[in-house]
Every structure is written in C-alpha cells, then in structure tokens.
Amino acid sequence: MGKARKPVQIVILFLILLLGGYAIGSSVFGGDGKAREGGKAPSFELLGLDGLVHTLEEYKGKSVVLNFWGSWCAPCIKEMPALQAQWNKWREEGVVVVGVNVGEDQMTVENFVNQVDIDFPVVMDTGRDAVRSYGVSPLPTTYFINTKGRIDSIHIGQLDLGSLDEQIGKLVGQ
User: Which DSSP helix (H) or strand (E) runs through 46?
Assistant: First the structure.
C-alpha cells in the first residue's frame, strides 16, 4: 500500500514546486499582465469606427494618448471635449489621441461620437481584450505612451483641459 502512494506524492510535490516557482517568478518579474509606467505598452488589434483594424504599432514613433472610456460613464463624457481640444492642438506635433471604447456595440459608439462631436480615432474593445492587457479599472483611464512605445504616465479618472495639456506637453518634450 505504501508503494502505491509514492508516485502520487511525487506528482503532488512536483505540482506544488511548479506552482510555487510560477508564483515567485510572476511577482519578481511582474507577470500580472498589468501595464506599468516605464513599461512597454501592450499591443492591441481593435476594430475602429472607420471599419479598419487598428494596432498600437501603426502609431510607432508618435506620442499616443490612449483613453479607455464608455458612453455610460459620466466622467468619460465630461472629458471628451478636453480630449478633442488636445487632439486639435497637438496632432501636428505627432501626438495621436486614441479613444478605446470598452464593451459597447458599434451603433452605440457611433451615435455617441456623433453626439459629442469628436473626430479623433476611436476603436472598440468589445471583447475587453485591451482592458485586460492594460489592467484598466476604473473608467476613464488614460495612458500616455511615448514615441518609443513606453508608458510615460497613467491617469486614472477624469482629465481636465489643463492636466491633459500638461501631460501631453511632458510627453512631447522628451
């Protein structure tokens, strides 16, 4: 009876060591998947309102203001005019404002964009893949990504015109 338990005990011990090593490696090397300041911005492939699939790589060499939002989110709605104003101000300087709608269908997003009159690029994260890879919570959350594809800063919550202008100014001044 003792010999029959030995292989099971070895397998259990192996699994414990494997899981322990994974847990230690994840905490040491930041394997929780959440995007961090100074880290490389996670890539994405998301459908835009223009009908094309967009990726972060297409903005390589540009400063990117990546704003996660929802039409049901009051602070998100309030910051849209500031994002549009900064898009108008900075796009000639190589800054791209990209709105990432979280979990809504195309018709809802199109109606909202038309209602608030924004024309910066908007992509839809219907499956919440980008939300997971960036570790977004709550909305709105904005990532300021430098020309090298690294996250310069992260702002959680509503941005006003002044703080948005200041963050973009830092991003462009690097």
Answer: strand 45-48
